[in-house]
Structures are given as C-alpha cells and as structure tokens.
Amino acid sequence: MRYEKADNLLQLALEMQAARSGLSLKDIEEKFGVGRRTAMRMRDAVLRNFPQCEEVETDERIKRWRIPSGTLDRLINFTADELAALEGAIRLFDRDNREDEAASLSDLSGKLRALLKPDVARKVEPDLEALLEAEGLAMRPGPRPRIKVLVVEDLREAIKACRKVRIHYRNRRTRKVNERLVHPYGFLHGHRNYLVGWHENPKANTIALFSLPNIESVEILSDTFVRDPGFDLAAFAARSFGLFQEEPYDVVWRFAPEAAEDAADFVFHPSQSLERQDDGGLIVRFKAGSDLEMAWHLYTWGDKVEVLEPPRLAEMVHGQRAAWPALP
After folding, report:
1. Which architecture, in CATH terms, is 149-238?
2. pLDDT tens per residue, range 278-315
3. Which CATH number describes the domain made up of 3-75?
4. Is the Cβ–Cβ distance between 283 and 314 less than 8 Å?
5. 159: which strand partners?
6. What is the rounded distance in angstroms from the CA atom of residue 324 to the CA atom of residue 221?
7. 249-318 has which CATH code?
8. Which of 79, 83, 133, 170 is least enclosed, having the fewest CB within 10 Å?
9. Which parts of the chain have pLDDT scores under 50?
10. What is the pLDDT of residue 278?
C-alpha cells in the first residue's frame, strides 16, 4: 500500500472517531475527494483494521459508521505545520484587533502542545520555530476599527444561550447613543466588524447589522429567543460584495488585457464566473449587492477595469478611474 493511502485510512479512522454521529459514504467522498467505489473500499479497510468500528443507528436511511471515543487517542499527534498554521491564525486575529478569538486560539495552542509527548515535542519545536520565522505577516494597510473585548465576549455568550441583549448603540452620523433590543445571531468580519441580529422593534423587526465599534455596552437579558430556522449566515453574507446589505443584482466587469492575469487571481465573489476575451481581456460576472463597496474596490484598479453592468455602478466608477502605476 502506498504511504498516501495509509495516511488517508488513518485520517479516515480519526475522522470516524471525531464524528459523534458517524460518517456516511457521502461524507467520505466529500472529505477525501473520491468516488463512491473508492469510498466503499476505504470504509471496508477501516472496518477490517479497526474491529471496534460500529454502525450508528439513526432515523435516516443513510448508513453511518464511527469508532468509539478514545480508541485511537494514542495515534493522534500534531505536526509542526499544523501548529504553525494555528499560530498564524492567532497572529492574524491579533493583527485585526480580534483579541477575543486570538486569546481562545492561544489557549487551544497551549493545550495541544501540552498533549505532545516530550520526545515528539523536542522534534517539533525546531521545525515550528523555523516555520513561524518563514511566515511573514503583512500589516493590513489603512486603519483598523477598535473592538471592545468585553462587548464581544458578552455577545458570544448570548449567542450560545439564545438570550436577547440590550445594546447601547452609538449612531455613526448623529453620535447619539440609543438602546436597541437585539436577538444576536453571529458576526461578519471585513473592513468593519458587525454583529448580525434580529432587531426587535415595531418599526424594524428585521435582520440588521450593528457595527461592533459602535456598541458601547451589552446587557444580557433573561429573555430567550428562538432563532429563525430559515436564516443562514453564509447565505446572508453572500448576498453582498462586502458587508452592506442590498438586493443582489447582476454585475459585469471587464478588465484590460494588461490587468487580466492579476484579476484572474482574485475571487471577487463566490458566485463569479470568468470569461477570457480574444484581445486578452477578462470578463468577470457575479450576482451581489453593495455598489458602494464595489466602487471602493474598483477604484484600486483605476483605468484597468470597466463596469459593463449595472449602469448606476458604472456612473459611480467611470469618473474616478485613475491611471495607477501598479495593480492591486
């Protein structure tokens, strides 16, 4: 058996132990990027080598298998690459002023290192130091909004408990602070960081965004709420080019030949499609809202991009197309 196949089988066994509800054949296909027949062979190999593996009883028609917790604990180790990736995530959170998440990951990193056997730790540490030295982390240009750590901690607690919160929210235009009754759903992070929640108010009663730097304080209430089962945060975020929420519309940009290769390296939106042109140019199509955030981004491409659709975005951008000496 080739080494990569053995690695895959061991990884599958570990995944079966980690998945409390077990893994189905479809899960194996998706996790390892294989077809149905290969997934069946991998499952059978795990069943042969780990007789503790059991079929999970569920209400579904789909069969699932798992390995009891603790069976493979002695086989679990952490590589320098995995620990370096975790440390990199900590540094990214620190850079973006997301101290709460950075502290949580730092605690996790310490716990994982504590689990390493002394002889393994001695082998991993030099590689880990070398990897961290080799990973440069550029500061994000421009200002970064400050976030109150205690505000985020309280909001996370309310999200986990499905508790309503009363926030004291500062209006960006008037600077006045008003109370808002909110059902907190989650967060969106970008050029600004937002709380996503249901704004309970006779004049609102809708999903709204609340800028985290503008939340002065949070009061967790005893009242609970039922999360809207039809709300999906990822789908909500995908409606927009950035963070601002508008009704999605068809967007078409054309990049000049000299900018086409650079533009092709960007994912402007998850729904995008790319069309190479005979003259070397590139057409980018996607569907999203937030023309203001698109205009901000397109400004960085200067005269190397043309907005074909929608007309209102073209009007916003075309008069601001500078001839920059470099591309983003």
Report:
1. Roll (2.30)
2. 999 999 999 998 888 899 999 999 999 999 999 999 99
3. 1.10.10.10
4. no
5. none
6. 52
7. 3.30.70
8. 133
9. 1, 3
10. 94
Would you say 40 and 25 are in contact if contact means Cβ atoms under 8 Å apart?
A: yes
pLDDT digit string (tens) for 147-179? 788 898 899 889 989 999 999 999 888 889 999
Where in the chain do CATH 3.30.70 domains reside?
249-318
244: number of CA atoms within 13 Å, CB side? Answer: 9
Distances (CA, A) of 305 to 167, 273, 283, 313: 42, 16, 10, 12
Residue 51 has which token pair? 């007789």
Strands (E), 67-175: 163-170
Asked if residue 64 lies in contact with residue 22, where contact means CB atoms within 8 angstroms, the answer is yes
**3-class state of residue 260 by DSSP:** helix
Peptide bond preceding 310 in cis form (omega within 30 of 0): yes
Beta strand spans in the chain (E) = 54-56, 64-66, 163-170, 177-189, 193-199, 206-211, 215-224, 249-255, 273-276, 282-288, 305-309
Q: What 3 state SS string does 208-239 have?
A: EEEEHHHEEEEEEEEEECCCCCCCCHHHHHHC
| Cα distances (angstroms) measured from residue 274 to each of 268, 283, 320, 328 | 11, 6, 24, 18
Task: Provide the pLDDT for residue 19.
Answer: 86
Beta bridge mates, 163: 224
> Which amino acid appears at position 225 of this protein?
F
CA distances from 1 to 4, 5, 6, 43, 50 (A): 8, 7, 7, 16, 17
Q: Name the helix (H) or strand (E) containing 312.
A: helix 311-318
**147 closest CA partner among 86, 195, 181:** 195
Q: Is the pTM of this model over 0.90?
A: no
